[in-house]
Amino acid sequence: MLLLRKQQEPRKAYDLWSEQYDEQPDNLMLALDEDIFSNLITFASLKDKTIADIGCGTGRHWKQLLKYRPARLIGLDISKGMLQHLNEKYPFTETRLISHSTLPLQNNSFDMIISTLVIAHIRKIKKAFYEWNRVLKSGGEIIITDYHPELLGKGGDRTFLYHGKLIAVKNYIHSIEEIRRLAEIMNWQIREFTERKIDEKVARYYEEKGATSIFKKFQGTPLIYGMYLKKRDVFA
User: For the segment 79-99, what is each residue's pLDDT rounded down to a tens digit?
Assistant: First the structure.
């Protein structure tokens, strides 16, 4: 089968990927994201809180989130296809189709923002963060995970097969230093930071796919990072 790499803008790419996004039982990035998210969420307070999941996709983390019984959980995404699959899994949920930089939400209306595996798809990250900050209450919490910029800088990317073609989703590289600097501008305090590297712990994922050459090329490179942040209380 001939594989042709074709780069797509995130909106179009995820509409295509949505058809099979939930059918990736041995996806390394999704496995690491689940592990990091499950750890970071233990620092947060979710019961009876309002939560915005920005770039919610098909609702990968919603089963876990709903166990905490939030007062409101809304999913926001640029892809109609991803939202359609989320609504099929969780009927009567609240979802909105958005652009990357504008949120159809009121000022100071959410206790928590969650955004997993999204940051590198946002070109104007500073503008997006200002929007997040606008809707986040004072003292609010944020959980972020994403592909590590060091990996993207070395040529790593996120791809999927679609009818025999290898589709690469467009990414923008935002360094950890840039994220930290913007967090300070937004008055967000980073309470927890973690990252996972391509090392022997994940070697089997590459071996099982016959991709040992890729493993050797990127061995030692950070693959994914996660942050738990808290917006400083202006009244404190």
Answer: 999 999 999 999 989 999 997
Report yes or no: 225 and 73 within 8 Å, Cβ to Cβ: no
Summarised one tens digit per residue, pLDDT across range 5-35 is 567 999 999 999 999 999 988 899 999 999 9
DSSP 8-class letter at 44: S
Alpha-carbon span 191 to 181, nearest angstrom: 14
With contact defined as beta carbons under 8 Å apart, do 195 and 226 qualify? yes
Provide DSSP, 87-155: HHHSTT-EEEE--SS-----TT-EEEEEEES-GGG-S-HHHHHHHHHHHEEEEEEEEEEEE-HHHHHTT
109 Cβ contact list (under 8 Å, min separation 6): 50, 135, 137
Burial 154-176 (b: 16+ CB within 10 A, else e): eebebbbeeeeeebebbbeebee
Give which of 8, 24, 5, 1 is closest to 170, Cα–Cα: 8
The dihedral through the CA atoms of 103, 38, 172, 159 has a sign that is negative
Tokens of 89: 């899994």
Give the global pTM: 0.94
